[in-house]
Each structure stands twice: as structure tokens, then as C-alpha cells.
Amino acid sequence: MTEDRWKHWPAPAKLNLFLHITGRRADGYHELQTLFQFLDHGDTLDFEPLADGRVESARALEGVDPGKDLTLRAAHRLREVTGHPGGVRIHVHKRLPMGGGVGGGSSDAATTLVALNALWGTGLDGASLARLGLELGADVPVFVHGTAAWAEGVGERITAVAPPEPCYLVIHPGVHISTASVFSDPGLTRDCPPITIVDFLAGQAGNVCEAVVRPRYPEVDQAMGWLGEQGVIPRLTGTGACVFGAFDSALEAREALDRLPPRWQGFVARGRNRSPLMDRLDRC
Ligand SMILES: C[C@@](CO)(OP(=O)(O)O)[C@H](O)COP(=O)(O)OP(=O)(O)OC[C@H]1O[C@@H](n2ccc(N)nc2=O)[C@H](O)[C@@H]1O
Ligand SMILES: Nc1ncnc2c1ncn2[C@@H]1O[C@H](COP(=O)(O)OP(=O)(O)O)[C@@H](O)[C@H]1O
């Protein structure tokens, strides 16, 4: 029988509290400055050990080619790197919108790496797991480290930070935005002067993708406009499509959620500077 320690591994969402582009590398990738904070809301993963070495998902994720499923790729890479012979069946209970800028795929991949490393007893340290994670996606190392982070480079140079942890209302305006299309837009501001966390805390930071995304996606523009009417500063997370605002209390955030126009999905969640994944790891 599967032990409880294999179950209920959280894969939290993240928000980019701001996102500036400071330059472009020779390979075309953009140099960023951003601040990642986790939410106490996300996907949940259960793992089942398989003795015969197979790595499989219990149910294919809609719209994701099984060869590209980040949880399977993470498990395969961990086996390859450590030589662990065991297999695993992975159950992903999906709550996060895919490609919405809240990092669900990256978080699922990080949770797979962190959980299986503990469950298989493969003993990789955090830095080695984060390196493996970076092969899967730019945001995976932040989820592996599990602390709110000031990130630079393409997101791989990270420093732990502890901004305030408010209650957010996060809205998915129901459109899909390709990260690549935002980064290839000629109108994108790519020369932001580098800032510090003090500048961020003083309110001198935003998301440069907003200026490209809002005119191209009226639903995002309208959701941001609606959030502004609720008395909060509307923000885009990552390259979108999700938008969010910070409320003074959970009650106010929930009351705003109750007023959300029915054409949009939304949820209320608290910002967390320590990832729920780390709390789960402590209990393993
Ligand atoms: C910018 C962030 C902030 O969190 O946006 P979201 O994806 O969360 O919205 C992420 O770091 C995104 O990372 P990730 O989601 O791994 O990006 P990818 O799929 O690898 O990138 C898709 C494409 O966007 C462009 N790209 C991406 C990241 C980057 N720093 N510079 C780029 O120019 C590249 O053309 C790349 O091929
Ligand atoms: N387990 C997974 N969960 C979500 N998306 C996945 C997963 N595996 C692969 N993907 C792919 O990764 C893409 C980006 O996913 P996601 O992290 O949700 O985006 P974002 O960083 O914009 O929030 C998805 O569109 C999907 O095709």
C-alpha cells in the first residue's frame, strides 16, 4: 500500500510582483529583474512508487503532450542523474490555469524534483536540484529553493527576500498569452535601469509586459480596469494572462471575488515567502 508520505505534495502558484527587462543576451533571451512570491493556492501532486522503473502519469494533462509533461521530464532527469532504479506514477490534481503566468507547470516540475529526491532518498542538495530544474524552465529553480526571491539574469540568479504577505485576488481573464509572443514584441521596453528591493518597496516598479499585453488582449485590459475599480493597484503576473491585486484583508479580497463578473475565473490566496512545499518537505 502507498504510504501517506507519498501523498499531498503542494505545487503552489507564484506571482511576479513586478517584472522589468534590463537587456537582451546574445542568444535572444531577455535579462530580467523580478520578484517571485508564492501563494497558499496551487496544484497538488500524489506519487505512487512503481517497482519496475516505469515513469508515468496517472492521467494525461489536457493539452500537454506526454513527452513534454514537466513532471515526467523532472522524474526522468532525477533517475538519470542519480541512477535511481525505481519508477513512479504521478497524479497531478490541477487547479492552476496553464500558461497563465502563475507558474503551474514550473511548480509541478519543482515539486516532483523535491518530493522524489526525498521519497527515493537520492540525496541531491538544493543547488543540484535547482540546476536540474533550470534545464526544465527558467522559473523552476525558484520553486525548488522555496523562498520568495529577487531574481535576475533569466531568473536563475536568485536572492531570498521577504516582502509583505498580503491577500491577493487573482483573476484569469480567460485568454491564453504565449510568453514567446510577448518577448518578441518590438514595443516591449527592454532597457529598464536596474533597481533594488528598496525601489520596489517604494512602489517604483511595475510589469513592462502590461504595455504590450493590455492593448492586444482586451479581456486582460478590462480585468485590470475592474481591479482598479475595487481600490487596488492592478498588476499582470509574468507575461500574463492572470492579473492580481493586493487587498488589506482576506475579507475584502473575498468580497471583491464575490463581485467578479462571471465571465472571469478568480481565486483569493495569501502571499507566502516560504513555499508550502518546504513545509511539506519538513513533514516527510
Ligand atoms: C518571464 C516569466 C516570469 O515568470 O514569465 P511567465 O512564463 O511566468 O509568464 C518566465 O520567467 C518565463 O519563463 P519560461 O516560462 O520558462 O519561459 P519559456 O517558456 O522558456 O520562454 C518562451 C520564450 O520566451 C522568450 N523568453 C523567455 C524568457 C526570457 N527571460 N527571455 C525570453 O526571451 C524566449 O523566446 C523563449 O523561447
Ligand atoms: N505539469 C504541467 N502543468 C502545466 N503546464 C505544463 C505541465 N507540463 C508541461 N506544461 C506546459 O507548460 C506550459 C507553461 O505552463 P505554466 O507553468 O502553467 O505557464 P506560466 O509560466 O505562464 O504560468 C503550458 O502551457 C503547458 O503546455
Automatic annotation (TrEMBL):
Its EC number is 2.7.1.148. InterPro entries: GHMP_kinase_C_dom, GHMP_kinase_C_sf, GHMP_kinase_N_dom, IspE, Ribosomal_Su5_D2-typ_SF, Ribsml_uS5_D2-typ_fold_subgr. Catalyzes the phosphorylation of the position 2 hydroxy group of 4-diphosphocytidyl-2C-methyl-D-erythritol. Residues 70-146 form the GHMP kinase N-terminal domain. Residues 209-260 form the GHMP kinase C-terminal domain. This is 4-diphosphocytidyl-2-C-methyl-D-erythritol kinase. The keyword Metal-binding does not apply. It comes from Ectothiorhodospira mobilis. Belongs to the GHMP kinase family. IspE subfamily. PANTHER family: 4-DIPHOSPHOCYTIDYL-2-C-METHYL-D-ERYTHRITOL KINASE, CHLOROPLASTIC. It comes from the Bacteria.
